[in-house]
Specification:
The complex is a heterodimer of chains A (111) and B (114). Chain A has 111 residues and is an all-beta fold. Chain A is built from no helices and eleven strands. Chain A starts with a strand and ends with a strand. The chains are: A mainly beta (111), B mainly beta (114).
């Protein structure tokens, strides 16, 4: 079993829909990252969480440390949100950058 | 924030040759990281590149195959040596600024080995 599991693996939505991507992990962590990867391969960091909730525009990320679970929500989805969304965790006590990644969720938003 | 550039953005190489990938950051950073993303897979950390010392390699990666240079605080190179088709991947450079709140990634180098 992978240390970081994402669901769903593939997600198709219509423009305007509310989207949720889930991430569960099995190790102790000091931080969790949500990343966005576009078809060209480049990766953008969306959020870093160690507790609670963060919001940036239409994106909301939450984390429940006790349940070892995080969610990424996209409100009013748009075709430009189509990308791969990756959850990554930094284990407690490890240096920055040593991340363990989930397999990614492929999101396609249709107009 | 940090802006990272990588060269080349993509390349097609022949088996047995080597390719050096460059990573340039617009600010001084202590630690730079090299990741590999094989087709259909998630990212895997290859090594941590520290300025002034040898790179630290993760399990399964060795210096002879992936030599790394880190001559200063804004630049690093990763060489993929004696390439085989299994080395076909996206290679990404990354940095974490002091405080580690955000991880910045380069645009990636898409390598195809024939």
């Amino acid at each position: 079993k992978n240390e970081v599991e994402q669901s769903p693996q593939n997600l198709t939505a219509q423009e305007g829909e509310f989207i949720t991507i889930n991430c569960s992990y099995s190790v102790g962590i000091s931080a969790l990252h949500w990343l966005q990867q576009h078809p060209g391969g480049g990766i953008v960091s969306l959020f870093m969480l160690s507790s609670g909730k963060k919001k940036h525009g239409r994106l909301i990320a939450t984390i429940n440390i006790q349940e070892k679970h995080s969610s990424l929500h996209i409100t009013a989805s748009h075709p430009r949100d189509s990308a791969v969304y990756i959850c990554a965790v930094r284990r407690g006590g490890t240096s920055y950058g040593k991340l363990t990644f989930g397999q990614g969720t492929i999101l396609t938003v249709h107009p | 924030s940090a802006v990272i550039s990588q060269k080349p953005s993509r390349d097609i190489c022949q088996r047995g040759t080597s390719l050096t990938i460059q990573c340039q950051v617009d600010s001084q950073v202590t630690m730079m990281f090299w990741y590999r993303q094989q087709p259909g897979q998630s990212l895997t950390l290859i090594a941590t590149a520290n300025q002034g010392s040898e790179a630290t390699y993760e399990s399964g990666f060795v210096i002879d195959k992936f030599p790394i240079s880190r001559p200063n605080l804004t630049f690093s190179t990763l060489t993929v040596s004696n390439m085989s088709p299994e080395d076909s991947s996206i290679y990404l450079c990354s940095v974490a600024l002091t405080g580690g709140d955000t991880q910045y990634f380069g645009p990636g180098t898409r390598l195809t080995v024939l």
